[in-house]
Amino acid sequence: MNLGNIISLDGSQNNAFKELVCQLADLNFSEIGKFIKVGNPDGGVEYYIIKENGDEIEFQAKYFLSTPQKAQFDQFDSSIKTALEKHPNLKSYYLVISIDRAYHGEYNKKSFKDRWEEWVKKWQDKAKDDYSKEIEIICLGSNELIKILKDDKSAGLVKYFFGEIDLSNEWFKDQNDSAIKSLGVRYSPEINVELEICKYFELFSKNSQYLAKIKSDFYKIYNKFCEKFDLLRDIPDELKDEVNLVKNFVSNLDL
Whose CA, among 24, 134, 156, 198, lies 20 to 30 Å from 253? Predict the structure, then answer.
């Protein structure tokens, strides 16, 4: 999955990325508190969650297709500064970006990862010194987002934002349930009709029963060969190495 292939929403991929992050945050975090989406101007965050104890978890999304430079870090500064000023109960600040923190970059000849770690320390110190609060700052990059999107419960979002086919376990379950419902009283799990075509699907899925049959048939042929021809038992010295290779190959087959 390539986050650069996200659809355009309201005229831009940036808007689509922010909406995707909003939907993921709602899907994965809203159960721990009240989820609130913020309009423009966003007060340093796109969305935030108010926990029962009043603490806030806040999210800011930035859509970049290349390593952030000074201008982008200035945006980070502006966003978190506004968040600290507008949200006195801020405890966790998630900066969600569309790329990973690589070990390379041109900004002051430091890697994005190194520059990020310095930025986190700077703002954790500022939060403590200027706002008398301790906060955690978490970066979710491309790798983390893709892991979340691979979860079955994100399949609908993947289909909408990237146009990819939903082949999740949940999708197959829904299709199966729908087929059973359509059959109505005609469906009975006790009645099972074996069709010739099933063996091909079993082969494609590496069905263990089917593979066991292949393995059994193979060794029947192999043993017959050994019985009829003593080629693999009594062989000239100059062919022993080659025959041993064949034997080793056969014994190591994972069928």
Answer: 198
CA distances from 20 to 37, 140, 153, 212 (A): 12, 13, 14, 46
Residues 6+ apart with CB under 8 A from 128: 134
Dihedral sign from CA coordinates of 233, 237, 242, 245: positive
Q: How far is 121 from 143, CA to CA, in rounded Å?
A: 22
Euclidean distance between CA atoms 229 and 241, whole angstroms: 18
- pLDDT mean for each 10 residues of the chain (255 residues): 86 91 88 84 79 93 88 93 93 92 62 90 96 94 90 86 70 74 71 65 60 72 64 62 68 57
Could you tell me which residues are beta bridge partners of residue 228?
Answer: none
Whether pTM exceeds 0.70? no
Going 119 to 122 to 125 to 129, the CA torsion angle's sign is negative
State the Cα–Cα distance between residues 70 and 214, nearest whole angstrom: 62
Hunting for tokens 């376990």 — which residue is that? 169
Q: Which two tokens stand for residue 79?
A: 């966003």
Q: Is 107 exposed, middle or buried (0-12, 13-18, 19+ CB in 10 A)?
A: middle
Helical packing angle, 13-29 and 142-149, nearest 10°: 60
* Residue 201: half-sphere exposure toward Cβ, Cα within 13 Å: 5
**Which has the closest alpha carbon to 61: 81, 78, 41, 76?**
76
Strand, helix or coil for residue 89 = coil
Which residue(s) pair with 139 in the sheet? Answer: 95
- C-alpha span between 148 and 4 (Å, rounded): 16
Torsion of CA 30, 32, 37, 42, to 10 degrees: -140
**Tokens 């010194």 belong to which residue?**
129
Q: Is 105 helix (H, G, I), strand (E, B) or coil?
A: coil
